[in-house]
Amino acid sequence: MPNLRLALCQTDPWVGDLARNGDEVVRWTRQALEAGAQLVAFPEMALTGYPVEDLALRHSFVEASRAALVELAGRLAREGLGEVPVVVGYLGRSEHASPRLGRPAGSPQNCAAVLHRGEVVTRFAKHHLPNYGVFDEFRWFVPGDQLPVLRVHGVDVALAICEDIWQDGGRVTAAAEAEAGLLLVINGSPYERDKDDQRLELVRRRAVEAGCALAYVNMVGGQDELVFDGDSIVVAADGEVLARSPQFEEHLMVLDLDLPAASSDHTDGLLLADGLHLVRTELGGEPGEPAERLSAEVAPRISDEAEIWAALVSGTRAYVEKNGMRSVLIGLSGGIDSALVASIAVDAIGAENVYCVSMPSRYSSQHSRDDAAELARRTGLNFRTVPIAPMFDAYMAATELTGLAEENLQSRLRGTLLMAVSNQEGHLVLAPGNKSELAVGYSTLYGDSVGAYGPIKDVYKSLIFRLARWRNEEALRRGEEPPIPENTISKPPSAELRPDQVDTDSLPDYDLLDEVLTRYIEGDEGRDAIVAAGFDPAVVDRVVRLVDTAEYKRRQYPPGPKISVKNFGRDRRLPITNRWRRG
Description:
Blueprint (H helix, E strand, L loop, with lengths): L2 E8 L7 H17 L4 E3 L17 H20 L7 E8 L14 E9 L2 E7 L11 H4 L5 E7 L2 E7 L1 H4 L3 H8 L4 E5 L8 H16 L2 E5 L2 E4 L2 E4 L3 E3 L5 E4 L6 E8 L18 E8 L19 H19 L5 E4 L4 H14 L4 E5 L7 H14 L2 E4 L3 H10 L4 H23 L2 E2 L5 H6 L20 H17 L8 H5 L19 H13 L4 H6 L4 H13 L1 H5 L28
Parallel strand pairs: 1-2, 2-3, 6-15, 7-8, 8-9, 16-17, 16-19, 17-18
Antiparallel strand pairs: 1-14, 3-4, 4-5, 6-7, 9-12, 10-11, 12-13
Helix pairs in contact: 1-2, 5-6, 7-8, 7-13, 8-13, 15-17
């Protein structure tokens, strides 16, 4: 069997930064070539970043991407890297009209190309376009109709892009028909809980269906709401895992694969499954055995809490850095939510770049003030105290406010103060709201909802406590001081906007609330189905009503990293003005 040394570059592209992304392709290709790679692959749309959203509809950006691709091919050759074929994703356009879709020639496409010896030797577009969950690719792209097959070092390598293997048939079946020895898939597959297990099962199944080894390269980093966890995988034709990259970090995987010798004499243009046309590209290279074989490692899996924490940290770091910010600002109350957000921020960008303000009122307990100061001491972040009592008294002297209006005024004063400090000092404000509170509207517009990013926006309150305990345990495991004071975790949650207030005055117990919310939001179960599952009808009715009437608040909340199967944002799009109340 011929040997092919394959390199999968698990990188972090930045949307819109063509120059930086091109530099990264060159840098990682050089490392791959130094390791003896004979074929190098990068993630989906690695040249433009992913997803580009409506940038795909800008003609200037499409043409800039295409020009950058040609320039990159030449640069690789000029820098002595042109002899190794490089597969890289980019934003392209169709050569022909798609009458069935009502799209003209020149419509945007999610493309990939093979760069070799200074040339773009083949181009192709994604065949299956996802249009569910966070994906809107039918809005932007037209599908491709080719199965590209490279003949390199005596092996036939079929190429595909992400969704092409998530749907049945298509390029997987076509690869089998073309008798490929390897199916190479480039991906921009976002993270959500338990997706690594789902992804592995998918890759194994598709390898068996294609009848060949399958290599799956994914990106890392964050883009607005989305976080990419990498988890690049190579499996044999029988589904055996040969190599697997770590999650949430850039990584170069290089390994030797024994693959079937190319024997097919199918010609260009052959019609394959799903209307795909075979397109062959001969890249040369003699089959042979390496002097010393490389076997890539299978990275160990991490716990659920560790995975979620890494996603939150990665998403926060990416949002701050990719938007050109250096520091963040957080209102640190001494409660569990702001404590967790501060800990995430410290892990993401370093304690020296995290600024926190304690803003006590007459209702703030001494233990909460002490807990906020103690977290600052433990983590080393920047901390100050600015009491809001004088501001609050000035407002109350000028107008008559009682009850909820009086409570919300305190929150809004804190929000105004945070934004003022942000404007003065140039910090990016992080909002501390969690998914449970956002779901039922237990937040104050222009108060605790102010900010540019919400690190725990997609994290239910019951999970907040699990993560806090896990982060403290992880610190002990490393021989460090736990960042979050135990009292912050153990005390009953409270907004502290009136005397002796606790969250359960206004909401069901969080464990119960989160169970109902998970069924209603992630599961899309109606009111009757949730009641039939054994939940108190009165509780269900109340929760459903609160969720439905809080849609206008959620629309005004900043973005945050998606970790669940359905977040508030791209995943869940319900009307604000809505009279349907049956769940």
